[in-house]
Write a structure and sequence with these properties.
This protein is α/β, with parallel strands linked by helices and 288 residues long. It has helices at residues 4-14, 48-57, 81-91, 101-104, 110-117, 151-161, 193-199, 211-219, 233-255, and strands at residues 27-30, 39-43, 61-64, 95-98, 120-128, 138-150, 170-172, 178-188, 203-207, 227-231, 260-263. The protein is built from nine helices and eleven strands. The strands form two sheets. A six-stranded mixed sheet has the order 5-6-8-9-10-7, with helices on both faces. Helix 2 packs parallel to helix 3 (81-91) and helix 5 (110-117) packs across helix 9 (233-255). It binds zinc ion (ZN).
Length: 288
């Protein structure tokens, strides 16, 4: 059985901490480097539900995409919800390791996993990492569809292939427009509009799109029309858990570690319900 320090070294090799954004907080949050690891759980969010799931599973290590603490704190008291997560993990000898923006820009990374879930062929990063001479790392991915789809069909595919959430997929733009190329970015993507426009793609699939940037982007008549597909933030990042788990599984086999690696299927998207509006005459029909 490997020590935590050995497993963390392997994870750091996949997602080096120095490639995280300067504002980010990645790496090991909880854990004794000398403890043995046999069972690992991957999840998007380090929330209490997931900590409880790790306990029930008998996991020794929880790997999450989102940080537990992004800013400094002066308490891990169990009376705070984050402190309770820390207490739960430490009481059960479960380590917590975070790979966030260092996993976003990795090759393969969060957006490769998202593209893979939708059967899209990745062509290149949307925003290449200038420090990568091979141009394979970076934020978001520019992808091609094997067969062109309408925006409506692509949204249906995303709704079917991504894990189910209350939000589903929102579409901006002409639902009948043909999509041959699409940019994808797991997580919040509305800071990437300029790069998406420059990439010359037919559609952009991401999460957390706000009214004004989205409305201005779709209404821009100086450029060719471009559709937006907005999924739940959690759903766009969840495929990375399966990718990371598969990568760790392979490392485990190679090293003869015999790790058991699991992916949490618990939906931790904060939005829990969706009430459809009254039927409209819009081209998409009533959302459901
Ligand atoms: Zn995220």
């Amino acid at each position: 059985m490997p020590r935590l320090s050995e497993v963390i070294a392997a994870l750091d090799n996949l997602w080096p901490a120095e490639r995280a954004e300067s504002w980010d907080a990645v790496g090991t949050v909880v854990g004794d480097p000398g403890q043995e690891v046999s069972r690992v759980l991957f999840a998007v969010d380090p929330v209490q539900e997931i900590a409880d799931e790790a306990v029930e599973l008998g996991a020794d290590l929880l790997v999450t995409h989102h940080p537990l603490y992004l800013r400094g704190t002066t308490t891990v008291a169990a009376s705070t919800f984050k402190g309770r997560v820390v207490h739960t993990l430490i009481k059960h000898d479960i380590a917590l390791h975070v790979a966030h923006t260092n996993a976003d820009t990795a090759d393969p990374g969060v957006s490769d996993a998202l593209a893979g879930a939708l059967d899209l062929d990745v062509v290149r990063p949307l925003v290449p990492d200038p420090s990568d001479p091979e141009g394979r790392r970076g934020l978001g991915r520019v992808c091609e569809l094997r067969h062109p789809l309408t925006v409506r069909e692509l949204a249906a595919r995303a709704a079917e292939r991504l894990p189910a959430t209350a939000q589903g997929i929102r579409v901006a733009g002409d639902p009948e427009a043909i999509v041959r190329t699409v940019a994808v970015s797991g997580g919040s993507g509305d800071s990437l509009f300029a790069s998406v426009r420059a990439a010359g793609v037919d559609a952009f699939l991401t999460a957390d799109l706000r009214h004004h940037p989205a409305a201005e982007f779709v209404a821009d008549r100086d450029h060719s029309p471009l559709a937006l597909l907005d999924a739940a933030h959690w759903a766009t990042e969840w495929p990375w858990c399966e990718l990371g788990a598969a990568q760790l599984d392979e490392i485990s086999d190679r090293n003869g570690w015999d790790l058991r690696v699991h992916v949490s299927k618990t939906v931790t998207d904060p939005w829990t319900a969706h009430a459809a509006s009254a039927p409209t005459s819009s081209a998409m029909g009533a959302p459901n």
